[in-house]
Design goal:
The protein contains nine helices and twelve strands. It has 310 residues and is an alpha/beta fold. It has one domain: Aminopeptidase (3-Layer(aba) Sandwich). An eight-stranded mixed sheet has the order 2-3-5-4-6-12-8-11. Helix 3 links the parallel strand 4 and strand 5. The longest helix is centred in the C-terminal third of the chain and has 22 residues. The protein starts with a strand and ends with a helix. Belongs to the peptidase M14 family.
Length: 310
């Protein structure tokens, strides 16, 4: 278990203990900068996949519509009698393997499920966040607390309306995330500053773990994913209190949240089988390739379980 003993210090925006207003949020936004290319690292790969997959644009971010179009890739051999699996990545743009892992799965494994399951893959829900390596959107809103219709996040509203308008009701949904050391160095301090609070839990788990849904636990499903990922990378142990990031471990490598209540991506549909992956890219035991492979193993573990169970 990795832990950064980080004393509470003043964040460079706002006054400690006072929630941000529009002025502070604008100041935070002006501090952000483009650090990598959505076009080169994501859109170019989607283009390469366009012959094998049905690529559909479901929106564009108003911050810069030409720079930030939003795409899903769907099975070309769509069959109405097959179950539907939804894969989402890049809800938090800075979590690189969520985006690249979804694309890696499409490149190397998805063809194995042709004719067995209808796939809908949205590899990068937050392209501005991807380019600026950010958790929030430009309005200092966390998309992964905003999967509720009417929430102030274009990123979440676009994909939710796409699924609703196209009557896509998945049986399984795998949402790809990371827990990183920058959660402690930047994102938790920013959250505390934005909301005018303090944070006491600075634990970062060393390894992969899952977040299930308290209302749709499906323990065997979660275990199948953990078993699949364990062949690729190490699973995070519980801490001395039996927790991971402050939440009780319900089985090896798995904690649970009420996803719909929290507005999480995993709660945006009524899928029976839902999970959120959490890769730890800062471990000395991993590298970017291993992280992408772990995300792909989570997806294949989920699909294999559901297909065997159906």
């Amino acid at each position: 278990m990795s832990k950064i003993d980080r004393p509470e210090v003043a964040y460079p925006v706002g006054v400690p203990g006072t929630p941000w207003g529009d002025t502070e949020k604008t100041q935070w936004y002006t501090m952000q900068a483009i650090k990598r290319s959505y076009q080169e690292e994501v859109l170019s790969k989607i283009e390469q996949l366009s012959e094998a997959w049905q690529v559909e644009q479901y929106g564009a971010l108003s911050y810069d519509p030409s720079r930030y179009p939003l795409f899903v890739l769907r099975s070309k051999n769509w069959q109405s009698n097959l179950p539907v699996a939804l894969i989402t990545g890049g809800v938090h743009g800075y979590e690189t393997s969520g985006v690249q892992g979804a694309l890696f799965f499409l490149q190397h494994f998805a063809q194995n499920y042709d004719g067995k399951v209808n796939l809908v893959v949205a590899p990068c829900l937050s392209p501005w966040g991807y380019e600026t390596i950010n958790r929030w959107n430009p309005k200092a809103v966390d998309p992964n607390r905003s999967f509720i219709f009417g929430a102030p996040s274009e990123e979440t509203q676009a994909i939710m309306h796409y699924l609703k308008d196209n009557h896509i009701a998945p049986l399984v949904h795998v949402d790809l995330h990371e827990t990183t050391d920058t959660d402690n160095s930047e994102f938790r301090p920013a959250l505390a500053a934005r909301d005018g609070v303090t944070h006491d839990n600075w634990d970062i788990p060393d390894g992969f773990y899952l977040v299930g849904d308290t209302k749709r636990s499906e323990d065997a499903f979660q275990k199948a994913i953990i078993d699949s990922v364990a062949k690729i990378t190490h699973i995070a142990p519980a801490d001395q209190n039996g927790n991971i990031i402050g939440d009780k471990v319900v089985q090896h490598g798995v904690i649970e949240y009420d996803c719909k209540k929290a507005g999480l991506c995993a709660g945006m549909t009524d899928a029976q089988y839902v999970t959120t992956t959490e890769v730890y890219p800062d471990s000395p035991k991993t590298d970017p390739q291993n992280c992408m492979e772990a995300q792909a193993a989570a997806i294949t573990g989920a699909l294999n379980f559901v297909l065997a169970d159906s």
